[in-house]
Amino acid sequence: MLRSVVHNSRHRCGIVASTLPAAPRTTLRALAVLLGCAALAGLGGWLIDQPAIIGGVEDLLPMEHRPPAGSHLRLSLRGPAAADSWPQIVDQLGPQLPGHFPLSPPPAEARGWLDAHILYRIAPSEHAALAARLEPAAMRAAVAGIRARLASPLFGVSDEQPRRDPLGLRALGAADPGYLGAGAASAPIPTASGDLLSADGRTLLLYLRTGLPPAHLHAWASAQLSARFGVDTGIELNVFPITANVAPTERSSLRLVDLLAATFAALVLVLTLGLRRTRIALALVVVVAAAAPLVVLLAGARWLDAPVLLALLGVVLALAVPLAVHRGVGVLGPCLRLALALTPLLLLPYPVWQRWAWVWALALLGLALVVRGLGPPLLRLCAARPPAPRRARPPHRWPPLVAFAVLLALLAAGTWSSRHVAEVPYDLGAADAALAAEFFPPSRVAELRAIGADEPAALGAAVDDAARLAALGPEVAVRVDAPGSLLLGGAEAEARKAALAGLDLPGRIDLLRVALTEQGLRPDAFGEFIRALDPNRLPTPAAALAGPLAGWLATRLERDGTGVAALSRVLLAEDLPADLTLPADLRGPAVFAHAEARARDARLGLLLAAAAWLSAFLTWLSARRLAVALTAALVGLAAQAGALALLVAAGGVGLPLLLPALLLVGACAAELAARACTAPVPTDSSIPGADAPVLRDSSIPGAAAPVPGDSSIPGAAAPVPAAIRDRPALVVACQVAPALVLLATPEPAWRSFGLVLGFGGLLGLALATRVAPGLCALLRRLTREEPRP
Amino acid sequence: MSARRSLALATCLIAPVLMDSVACPIGQAHAAAPASAPNPTGASPAPGRNLSRRLELWAKPLDGPGLSARYQLSRSSSLLYEPLQVAGSLTLTAPDHLELRDDAPGGATTRISGATLTIVANDPALPPSPPTAIQDGPGARWLRERLFALLLAQGPAALLADTLVSVPRGPGMQLELSPARNHPARREVTRLRIKLDPDTGEVLELQLTEAGGDLVTVTLSGHQRPG
Questions:
Q1: How large is the average pLDDT for residues A512-528?
Q2: What is the C-alpha separation between B215 and B47, in angstroms, rounded?
Q3: A-B Cβ pairs (cutoff 8 Å, strict)
Q4: Which CATH number is A614's domain given?
């Protein structure tokens, strides 16, 4: 019974039993298709569930220049409820929190250490002045001066500290480092724990070097305030994560899925109008949209990824028409050339763009394969009609000399603009804005790491780092927070000890005691200073690790498998001199910004030169004509220059954020220029039905020789005229559609990206259709290149 | 006498004593007010009765642009075997010049001029000390503002800014000022106690307690306010 049913059904379907695939193979294939569909559906669901786009400018920073994971915690006294506990909170809260990293040495311990080694803070060049101050008459006069000034009621609030330095030796030594030194009235004050208190005493800043999320840190600090200090109200608590590594800040309320939807809608509209076939447009967009989640998975969905992703979809859909409708005839060359469009980004040090150089190529080729594989069956399934014929008009081609002049003008405008583009502010978003006024902008902090086999060796190396940072001067290094600034290397300490041996310090101490007693002052009250005159107390790393600074030094030492690193931090000034050379191993966003400002012209030049060379080379590989290759490169370069000029005129954001757009503009313009140079002059007879022109270069899209039956649309089996395939305006429209979406967003960087992409695309089209043929003719004459038959 | 009357009488007797010994919250409220809820009129909250009486008395001598007086200074310090005693003359010229010149050649002359504090030994042979920029030192800044406000009777707002004020125990018309709890000047100055003349409201004595433990007492006499 069952066998007869199977037999009958096979006969009804007209399928010969021997040609049927085996049942298990059919099941596996169906399962694979089902799994693929389920995976795509899952990816789509994941994409829809994605929160708002995250990330920021910090994605441009190389890993070594990104700040380490951490957060700044700001506590502001807001009401009387917490006023009683505020002094204790200021001094004691920091060490109770995870990853507490003092922003300054604890002042009491650090000043005690400096005073105890006051002789070693005096450079050998000042030892003559030191000897003069230790003369008996000078010491008596100094002590008598203290006795006289003690009669002032304001002596206690003056800068004098007679217990620690009755002879004024500090003036001969190095200035107190970092926040220990005298600063402006608005400078923050270090607390007992090494945190910073604002000048008005109402705001406390803590730095927690931990990867814990902000909400966790907020809860931890609130719990400490409540449990340890009994404070529940009256203090405002803010956590500012360092966005590079901890928790990216939400930069836009837009979601990627919204952007994708808008882009696909715009592309449907563009394709429908361009092809005059709604089914083809819908089918192609559906194919690309189905594969889009895979691309998002590969490329990421951060702030800088979004505009490039949209541009990618536009380029893919521009290629989708010949890929799906005409079975990819003559599209391989353009696909490969556009896939390599972002390759020059590998030459620049921006990690996100280096990643996109690969991702762009892989995604574009992958999507092209998907469109090539799924497009034709889907078009057949929906019974799409062939695209409507294009009403081609012969473009007005400018004479060679006019074309050359236009090109030169654009290149000159671009050269001028390249010196006026804005710089990228490598800030840390909300943290910089909130902390800069009272404390410092965290993005201006840079770090040096001194490596040693153990702690004393690392601190010994950090002494050299501190000297290098101090040599930058206060105009560059506003604050230096370096353990090495409190220490001396072993050799230097011994050399200074030898130089001090000739001063007869024990005898001077006895004289000082006598002078103090003569003036009615108690020598024991000056014991701290008298002990500091012992030259055997060397400020070496080993002594510091065994002294009161050990706790603070532990926060400046990081251990890994190979050794110990000692951290030295410096706050760099806002405007660094352009010719300043910072230490080579200094790391931080400000250091990278300074290097970028110095190398901006060189980097832009390198990028554009590499892109132009690549365009010329790839065009020459396909066309084998030098004039065409040079024309493509020059037109691409001119389109980039024009887009750059518009960007400057419109006051756009920093150029490093827009490099992919600039490269895409150049690549698309070069592609269209090559097509225009190799295509025959269109005439009104190029409308379908008329004689189809025979194109010479089959590797240019739309320039392929007619292949009978190469269309995937039923009923379109006849040779496809070039007038149908050769739609440069449609290619550019697919580039402009995502640009318009970006222009409609509230993000300035995305708007600038859209501006460059859209305007550059239109300019490239104009240059390719009007300037390129004349320029190519001129170059042919110059290179004496014979037109091929 | 009924129990109610006894309770009322006892309350009337005890209340002034209690109010005299309790620190007035006005200063604390004033110290915390600026950031959270600044008073648009600049007026302080209503002070307690005792404090009001003292502030009213203190504000009396506002009849001249300056002050000259004699002073006796005593400093008790752990640096010294014995307390230091000096005498001298004080000259205050509005708005921002104050000089305290010791009579003895072994003493010193203290000058506040604008934002600069200098303390120079009277003996020119002794080495000078560097001038102090008052704006850079929270303690010097706080003390300077209190001294000028006190001696020029500039009004309660100038006197009580960033300050906790209380009425200490003991006889006489006294006020006690100390930096607000969150003020960095607390690291240098603990308190400033002021004794006022009960008749004229002139400042008779200033007692400064430094965070380092030194106690400085300046007794003023022979007040003259140039018309």
A1: 92
A2: 28
A3: 150
A4: 1.20.1640.10
Task: Report pLDDT for B56.
Answer: 73
Considering only CB atoms, A522 lies closest to which of B28, B81, B181, namely B81
Helix (H) or strand (E) holding A533: none
- Note whether A281 and A236 are same-domain residues: no
* Type of residue numbered A676: A
Query: What's the maximum distance between 2 C-alpha atoms anywhere in chain A?
Result: 130
Mean pLDDT score across all residues of chain A: 82
Last residue of a domain, one of A555, A581, A610: A555
Asked if residue A153 and residue A114 are part of one domain, the reply reads yes
Measured at the CA of B33, the angle between CA B29 and CA B38, to 5 degrees, comes to 140
pLDDT at A96: 93
Containing structural domain, residue A730:
256-424+593-783
pTM for the complete prediction?
0.74
Q: Report the gap between the CA of A75 and the closest CA in chain B (Å).
A: 13
Question: Which of A77, A83, A150 faces B75 most closely, judged by CB atoms?
Answer: A150
> Over the Cα atoms of chain B, what is R_g?
19
Residue A447 has pLDDT above 90, yes or no: yes
Task: Based on the fold, state whether residues A99 and A134 are members of the same structural domain.
Answer: yes
Contact B80 A141 (CB under 8 A): no
Same domain, A740 and A765: yes
Cβ neighbours, 10 Å, residue A744: 13
A152-185 pLDDT tens trace: 999 988 888 888 888 888 888 877 777 776 566 6
pLDDT of residue A718: 41
> Are the Cβ atoms of B78 and A144 closer than 8 angstroms?
no
Whether residue A471 is contained in a domain is answered as no
- Whether the complex's predicted ipTM is more than 0.90 is answered with no
**Measured between CA atoms, how close is A519 to chain B, in angstroms?**
9
In a domain, A33, yes or no: no
- The reported pLDDT for the residue numbered B41 is 33
**How is residue A613 written in tokens?**
């060379």
Do A491 and A544 fall into the same domain? yes
Measure A155 CA to nearest chain B CA, in Å: 7
B203-210 and B173-179: which strand pairing? unpaired
In a domain, A37, yes or no: no
